[in-house]
Amino acid sequence: MITGAPLPSWNELAALVGPAADPAGLWAGSGERSAWFSRSAHSLAAIVRDWGRRHGRPPRLWVPGYFCNASLEPARRLGVALTFYPIGSDLRPDWEACAALAGRGAPDLLLAVHYFGLAADMAAALDFCRRVGALLIEDCAHALAPTAEIGRAGDFVLWSPHKLLPVPHGSLLVCRTPGLDLPLAEGAAPSIRGWLVKRLVQKLAPGGLLPPAA
Question: Are residues 4 and 31 in contact, defined by beta-carbon separation less than 8 angstroms?
């Protein structure tokens, strides 16, 4: 996959060597738990898996009608009950239609997205979740870092810093709800050794030996 992430500097590469190298604090606040995954799709599956373990059944997960299907595959394999809730051409959820839809079966988990890094109305999403008894998953995969309007409302927050920064891990899951036991077997972030080797090769190779930019 081609991303806009630049090559790390030598100082940045050196900072990654050692057991204390974990940049999660850039996205997780004080007292918030976090875990690295290879992709946000696996972060979402970890939430689904843990909810099912604690409640004895797969959760009802609502996702917006405009969403990447590949990102749902790990959750689908867990038997999650998916509902695609309606959004308008402005990418805003139709909360009135969602309320009617919830009358036929409210969600246990609702995924709300900051499309293309633009702040969505998470206050409305959180209000809906509290009214129907759901937990809010805030998808910040296209945003660089928390702001006053991004990354603050969700019970769970999904970040994908590898899309924008020279970091070795793909996805960070931040958890604010008590009791979550993060099962990391599938989708857990691998060792950074392979990533470091690839970046070193790119840093050391003469420009003529590198493939042309796509």
Answer: no
Using CA atoms, how far residue 180 sits from 79, 115, 174, in Å, is 19, 26, 11
Beta bridge partners of 158: 139, 173
Amino acid at the residue 36: W
Measured distance CA(118)–CA(170) in Å, rounded: 20
| 116 phi/psi in degrees, rounded to 5 | 55, 25
Pair 81, 63: CB distance under 8 Å: no
pTM score: 0.78
Residue 113, SS3 per DSSP:
strand
pLDDT in tens, the chain (214 residues): 445 566 666 665 565 565 545 567 778 887 888 888 888 999 999 999 999 999 999 999 999 999 999 999 999 999 999 999 999 999 999 999 999 999 999 999 999 999 999 999 999 999 999 999 999 999 999 998 899 999 999 999 999 887 777 666 678 999 998 766 665 445 455 555 655 666 667 667 765 455 554 4
Distances in Å between the Cα of 143 and the Cα atoms of 37, 41, 147, 176, 186 are 17, 16, 9, 19, 25
Alpha helices in 153-207 (DSSP H): 193-204
Please list, in sequence order, all residues whose beta carbon lies within 8 angstroms of the beta carbon of residue 92, skipping any fewer than 6 positions away.
120, 121
**Integer Cα distance of 42 and 27 in angstroms:** 18
173 close to 46: Cβ distance less than 8 angstroms = yes
